[in-house]
């Protein structure tokens, strides 16, 4: 699932079911956190309470930050899926 910084850090509070069933959360547009009132640590804490096993990956398409982490996660998931 993708949560974009402009959507706000309270989205897990508004839609808890979504966050409780996904395997990974991409927090996108982290390069814009200075422009928006967005507390990434609060988001991580909220989603971990809803889903202790969720993988949270902050990313920025603009700067490339976190993209390799996301690719690594995808690669691992594909390998695990093929192994079933």
Automatic annotation (TrEMBL):
Taxonomically, what lineage is the organism?
Bacteria, Bacillati, Bacillota, Clostridia, Eubacteriales
Q: What is this protein called?
A: Uncharacterized protein
Gene3D superfamilies per record: P-loop containing nucleotide triphosphate hydrolases (3.40.50.300)
Its keywords, alphabetically, are: GTP-binding, Hydrolase, Nucleotide-binding
One GO molecular function term of this record is: GTP binding
Cross-referenced InterPro entries: Hyd_mat_HypB, P-loop_NTPase
Q: Name one GO biological process term.
A: protein maturation
User: SUPFAM superfamilies annotated for this entry?
Assistant: P-loop containing nucleoside triphosphate hydrolases
Q: Which residues form a coiled coil?
A: none
Protein source organism: Fervidicella metallireducens AeB
């Amino acid at each position: 699932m993708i949560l974009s910084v402009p959507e706000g850090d309270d989205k897990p509070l508004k839609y808890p079911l979504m966050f409780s069933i996904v395997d990974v959360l991409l927090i996108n547009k982290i390069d814009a956190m200075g422009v928006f009132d967005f507390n990434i640590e609060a988001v991580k804490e909220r989603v971990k309470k809803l889903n202790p096993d969720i993988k949270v990956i902050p990313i920025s398409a603009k700067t490339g930050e976190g993209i390799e982490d996301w690719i690594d996660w995808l690669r691992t998931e594909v390998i695990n899926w093929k192994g079933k």
